[in-house]
Amino acid sequence: MPSLPGSMLSSRRCSGYDVAQMNLPNVSQPTRAGLFLLALLVAFGAAGCKHQPTAREKQMAAFQAGQQRVISQMMEARRTSIRIIGNVRYPEIGWSDGLTLGKVIVAAEILDRGNPKMLFIYRQSGQIPVEPSYLLGGGDVPLEPGDTIQIQP
């Protein structure tokens, strides 16, 4: 690359090439070298310059995405409220001692007509299916903090 005074030339990396950025003084008669450099600058500018992430940058992005996923999973594991999946007015009910499936269903206010076909309780230890007829017959299931209830219409 030609040697020019420091205030006239700066360089940056772009896709493996050094791209010169020139601050040209006001010249009335451009030289051939000046026109050639101008043509090169226009060609590089027209081609565009996109930063291609290095392998290290890709690794860091993947690492950060993994960290975010783990943090959200940890926050979900600490959740104490009860979530309800289904057509309900209130899809999340705050935890309180003595909370049961029947109390949560009443508090969530099911918006579908008729009785649900099936209920599922999801908790860290697994899935618990509950027949609606069990609840209608007077039975109930105690809930644990963080449980998720799925109502199948």
Note down, in words, how this protein is organized.
The chain is α+β, with helices and mostly antiparallel strands. It folds into 2 domains: 9-47, no CATH class; 82-152, Outer membrane lipoprotein wza domain like (Outer membrane lipoprotein wza fold like, Roll). Helix content is 35%, strand content 22%. The protein has 4 helices and 7 strands; from the N terminus they run E-E-H-H-E-E-H-E-E-H-E. It has helices spanning 32-47, 55-78, 101-108, 132-136; strands at 9-14, 17-22, 82-85, 92-93, 118-123, 126-130, 148-152. It has a 5-stranded mixed sheet. A two-stranded antiparallel ribbon has the order 1-2. A hairpin with a 2-residue loop joins strand 1 (9-14) and strand 2 (17-22). The radius of gyration is 33 Å and the shape is elongated.
Give the topology, please.
Blueprint: E1 9-14, E2 17-22, H1 32-47, H2 55-78, E3 82-85, E4 92-93, H3 101-108, E5 118-123, E6 126-130, H4 132-136, E7 148-152
CATH homology group of the largest domain: Outer membrane lipoprotein wza domain like
CATH topology of the largest domain: Outer membrane lipoprotein wza fold like
| Distance from first to last alpha carbon | 73 Å
SSE string: EEHHEEHEEHE
Number of domains: 2
**Roughly how many Å is the radius of gyration?**
33 Å
* SS elements, strand count: 7
**Strand-residue proportion:** 15-25%
Write down the overall mean pLDDT. Answer: 80
- The CATH class of the largest domain is Alpha Beta
- Read across the widest sheet, the strand sequence of neighbours is 4-3-7-5-6
Low-confidence stretches: 1-11
Q: Please tell me the CATH architecture of the largest domain by its name.
A: Roll
Tally of individual helices: 4
Structural class: alpha+beta
